[in-house]
Design a protein that fits this description.
With 251 residues, the chain is α/β, with parallel strands linked by helices. It has seven helices and eleven strands. The strands form two sheets. The protein has a six-stranded mixed sheet, with helices on both faces. The protein has a five-stranded mixed sheet with strand order 3-2-1-4-5, sandwiched between helices. Helix 2 links the parallel strand 4 and strand 5. Helix 1 crosses helix 2.
Length: 251
C-alpha cells in the first residue's frame, strides 16, 4: 500500500492508497518542533494495521522535510520519495525558476492533469489560496498566490486594535450589520469575487476557457458565493496527484 503525505504550513494530510483507491485519510498538525521520534510514534500508531510498501512526500515546510522522511523510512522500512522540482513531474514546467514551485502545487497540477479535461486551473483554498494552471499540452504555465481565508481574518485581528479574531464561516449577508458579519462578508465573499475575477483574467491570457478544479479545506465554503461554479471539487486532489507522481518516480 502507498502512503501519500502532504505537509502544509498548518496541517500534514496523509492518505493510504490500495492501488487507485484511497482507503483512509488522516490529519496531523505541522509541528516543526516535534522530534522525529514523536512523529515515528504517531506514524506507527496510525498505520499499524496497514502494510506500507511505498511513500511519497510533498512538503512546503523545509524544517520537516528530512525529519518526516526519516520517520517514514524508519517506521515502514522503505526509502520514501521526497518530491521536488527535479523529480519526474509528468508536466513541462514553464516557470522562470522551477525550484520556486511548491511540491503541493506540483501534486495538484499533476493530479488535475491526469484526472480531468484540459486546459485546467486548479484553485487550492488552504493556508494560502493558490492557482495552478496547465494548458492542453501539459505545460505548467504558472499561477496565482493570495492570502487564504484564515490568514486574512488573522491579519485583520493582529493589525487593528478593535477587530475581533473570528474563524472562517458562512457569510449570511453581503451588507454586514455588525462587525463579525461585515468581516465575514469582506473575507469570504470578497475572496469568492477575487477568485472568480482571477479565473476570468487567467482565461483571457490563455485565450481559452478552462476546466476549474477546486481543492483544499475551504473550497466548499467559497463555492457558495461564486456565480461560476467549479467544474469539479476534489478535496483529495493533492493526494491523488502524489499517487500519480509516485508511479512516475518509484523506479
Amino acid at each position: 500500500m502507498l502512503l501519500a503525505v502532504d505537509i502544509g504550513n498548518t496541517n500534514i494530510t496523509l492518505g493510504i492508497f490500495d492501488n487507485e483507491s484511497i482507503l483512509e485519510t488522516f490529519r496531523l498538525a505541522s509541528d516543526k518542533e516535534l522530534p522525529q521520534e514523536e512523529y515515528e510514534i504517531l506514524l506507527h500508531s496510525l498505520f499499524k494495521k496497514y502494510q506500507i510498501t511505498g511513500c511519497i512526500i510533498a512538503s512546503v515546510v523545509s524544517e520537516l522535510n528530512k525529519k518526516f522522511k526519516r520517520a517514514c523510512d524508519n517506521v515502514f522500512h522503505i526509502n520514501s520519495i521526497l518530491l521536488d522540482s527535479k523529480s519526474n513531474l509528468g508536466l513541462k514546467i514553464q516557470l522562470k525558476n522551477p525550484k520556486e514551485l511548491g511540491a503541493d502545487r506540483i501534486a495538484n497540477a499533476c493530479g488535475a492533469y491526469m484526472l480531468y479535461s484540459k486546459p485546467i486551473i486548479v484553485v487550492d483554498l488552504g493556508t494560502a489560496t493558490t492557482f495552478d494552471i496547465v494548458d492542453k499540452n501539459g505545460n505548467f504555465l504558472g499561477g496565482v498566490i493570495m492570502p487564504g481565508l484564515k490568514l486574512q481574518l488573522n491579519a485583520l485581528n493582529l493589525n487593528t486594535s478593535k477587530l475581533p479574531k473570528i474563524e472562517p464561516d458562512k457569510s449570511e449577508i453581503a451588507i454586514g450589520n455588525d462587525t463579525e458579519s461585515a468581516i465575514l462578508s469582506g473575507v469570504i465573499r470578497g475572496s469568492a469575487c477575487a477568485i472568480e475575477g482571477l479565473i476570468s483574467q487567467c482565461e483571457k491570457e490563455m485565450g481559452e476557457r478552462s476546466v476549474i478544479v477546486a481543492t483544499g479545506g475551504y473550497c466548499g465554503l467559497i463555492s457558495e458565493y461564486m456565480t461560476r461554479e467549479f467544474d469539479f471539487v476534489n478535496p483529495c486532489l493533492t493526494l491523488e496527484g502524489l499517487r500519480f507522481l509516485y508511479e512516475l518516480n518509484k523506479s
